[in-house]
Amino acid sequence: MKNASPDTILTHAGNDPQANFGIVNPPVYHASTVLFPTVAALEEAGHSFDGVRYGRIGTPTSQAFEATVARLEGGFKAVTAPSGLAAISTALLAFVSAGDHILVTDSVYGPTRLFCSDMLKRLGVEAEFYDPLAGAGIERLIRPNTRVVFLESPGSLTFEVQDVPAIAAAAKKAGAIVMIDNTWGTPLFFKPFDHGVDLSIHAATKYMVGHSDAMLGVITAGTEEVWNRLKRNAVQLGTCAGPDDVYLGLRGLRTMGARLRQHQDTALALARWLQARPEVARVLHPALPDDPGHALWKRDFTGACGLFAIELKPCSAAAVASFLDGMELFGMGYSWGGYESLILPIHPEKLRTATRWRTDGPMVRLHAGLEDPDDLIADLERGLARLAAAA
Ligand SMILES: *Cc1c(COP(=O)(O)O)cnc(C)c1O
């Protein structure tokens, strides 16, 4: 397993059949109390964050999931959280104090923005949003008290690809911690620790769980020092996830490589088909050669997931509704990364504060599921015909 490739790690990491009657998958440990045979053993367990001493601190189930994710990302160790957003808030709270300043990309996931601009503000931390395309120019925004630079690349609504190495280098020079929401990139398509990141965060709810049936988050630390601080604070916050949900995350990882290849192929097929449609003004997908983020994506990523967006030509809200309301295969709802296709109207222009998001027509976000791409295209074709008829 020493030089195993990602697909091999996904298939085998975290499993130890011989320790479990030869059963392929690890058992789900439902645990609060962990018993110690002697005072000496109890005292030896002390306050260690490794090992198993209390359910909240970690179980063989959460440790198997964390070891697999950390191995895939090339980090030191990981911490499991009950949702993607809890992973983000745990990571941020672990590294900021009152009086600190943090820089957060203007393309960040909406609930992350709210956590920064509301809760962190109440705790005396100033969050400043920056242009996701700032690159090395972020240097001008860094202050003596800048503790964290937070990235999300590409942004999950607007798909702007950030120059992660340039931003990370400027942050590091100033002694700030670099965190990235790597949910879109997944541990397979973007390797954060090769690009100067200190902490990589995932909404495991998306592709890791992969079946739209559990909430889960995970944070990987690049080094032992960063992990110690992260884990100590996660323990103080009581951050832990239910064992069945962690198991679903571990089970989802086993097929994530195969699923992602199909999500990627189908999303690209849909994106190319949509590019040629007269109702569509542009397709926002960094793997398309004419996307503004394509050069950076090609330099830093090894693949693309199933999530992208389109900007429609200017049309009425009623026309958009007749497009979306009648979809048969694309469901309308939040989240993504499950096996099924999703479609959603989005309004990134309402979220921005540091930059202006320019759009002439309405925007729609799509998640390409595992259905047959031709069936999905037929569903979109009927939808766009409804839109054209209503316009
Ligand atoms: C969904 C999502 C999250 C939050 O994950 P939850 O598990 O829903 O809390 C964070 N970041 C991105 C980019 C997401 O898409």
Task: Describe, in short, the structure shown.
This protein has 391 residues and is of the alpha/beta class. It has helices spanning 6-12, 39-45, 60-73, 84-95, 110-122, 164-173, 186-189, 224-237, 243-275, 294-300, 317-325, 373-390, and strands at residues 77-81, 101-105, 126-130, 146-152, 177-181, 199-203, 217-221, 280-284, 307-312, 342-346, 363-367.
Detailed description of the structure:
- The chain has helices at 6-12, 39-45, 60-73, 84-95, 110-122, 164-173, 186-189, 224-237, 243-275, 294-300, 317-325, 373-390; strands spanning 77-81, 101-105, 126-130, 146-152, 177-181, 199-203, 217-221, 280-284, 307-312, 342-346, 363-367.
- It is of the alpha/beta class.
- A 7-stranded mixed beta sheet has the order 1-7-6-5-4-2-3, with helices on both faces. The protein has a 4-stranded antiparallel beta sheet with strand order 8-9-11-10, with helices on one face.
- The mean pLDDT is 97.
- The protein binds pyridoxal-5'-phosphate.
- Pyridoxal-5'-phosphate binds at residues 83-85, 109, 152, 156, 181, 183, 203, 205, 215, 217, 335.
What global shape is seen?
globular
Low-confidence stretches: none
Helix content: 25-40%
Which distinct ligands sit in these coordinates?
pyridoxal-5'-phosphate
Order of helices and strands: HHHEHEHEEHEHEEHHEHEHEEH
- Strand order, sheet with most strands: 1-7-6-5-4-2-3
Rounded mean pLDDT is 97
Separation of the first and last Cα atoms: 58 Å
**Biggest sheet record:** 7 strands, mixed
Number of strands: 11
Instruction: Estimate what percentage of residues fall within beta strands.
Output: 5-15%
